[in-house]
Design a protein that fits this description.
This protein is α/β, with parallel strands linked by helices. It has nine helices and eleven strands. It has helices at about 15-25, 35-45, 65-70, 85-95, 110-120, 130-135, 165-175, 180-190, 200-210; strands at about 5-10, 30-35, 50-55, 75-80, 100-105, 135-140, 145, 150-155, 155-160, 220-225, 230. Helix 1 crosses helix 5 (about 110-120) and helix 2 (about 35-45) packs parallel to helix 3 (about 65-70).
Length: about 240
């Protein structure tokens, strides 16, 4: 347990130092710190963490936005730290991939106790996608995307799909129900800073809709979330 790697993500250095001090007194040795979302993602990409303590209010993005991105890199147990205590905030925390929720102000000994409790449940990994999707086949009813065969089948018929549109759809299939901004999609799929590249994403969104939607002008699967971005939905027949 005490060899577990723990990542503290909070822009308040005093809180990070306090939690780190208590965790070290409790016997934990591998403790890392990040003070914004960018640093957290870089560390999550380089290290295999067991526990991530994640503040909700960060300077560059919210913990609610950051958590799904971390989930793509890590199977760590994620415990939110926040002063936001409404039922909606708590539900949002769990819906975005969190495993636990601690409200500020908190007793750092409570944090240590929750970390230990999560590590004792280490055999129970965070929820994963359904087995067929882990094999690279994403079935949304009307359409099926097969990552390894490189095929898109709509209404039982295989149809051609441009490579970049396929990669964009694949990314969305892997994260159903999660809203991504245009810049986030550009960075994830094209691999570079998406600032100013809204048109590129919009063109490829249109290409996808023309293939998977019955009515591209009134999409049911790849929907727009006004002011936020796009998300791919699983639609009941």
């Amino acid at each position: 347990m005490y060899n577990a790697k723990i990542l503290l993500v909070d822009d308040e250095k005093s809180i990070v130092q306090l939690i780190e001090m208590v965790l070290r007194k409790e016997g934990f040795r591998q403790i890392y710190a990040a003070y914004n979302g960018k640093e957290a993602l870089e560390l999550a990409a380089r290290h295999s963490f067991d526990i991530i303590l994640l503040d909700v209010m960060l300077p560059d993005q919210t913990g609610f936005d950051l958590c799904p991105q971390i989930r793509r890199l890590s199977d760590a147990h994620i415990i939110y730290l926040t002063a936001r205590t409404s039922d909606l905030d708590v539900l949002t925390g769990f819906a975005t991939g969190g495993d636990d929720y601690v409200t500020k102000p908190f007793n750092p000994l409570e944090i240590a106790a929750r970390v230990k409790a999560r590590l004792r449940r280490g055999a129970v990994a965070p929820a994963k996608a359904v087995p067929e999707e882990t094999r690279g086949r994403y079935d949304f009813g009307r359409f099926v995307l097969d990552e390894y065969a490189g095929t898109l089948t709509v209404g039982g018929k295989e149809i051609p799909c441009p490579a970049q549109a396929f990669q964009l759809l694949l990314f969305l299939c892997k994260h159903p129900g999660i809203v991504f901004s245009k810049s986030q999609l550009y960075e994830e799929v094209w691999g570079i800073d998406g600032l100013g590249d809204d048109n590129t994403v919009m063109v490829h969104i249109r290409k996808i809709r023309e293939r998977i939607e019955e009515d591209p002008g009134d999409p049911r699967y790849l929907v727009t979330v006004r002011g936020l971005g796009y998300k791919l939905m699983k639609v009941n027949a």
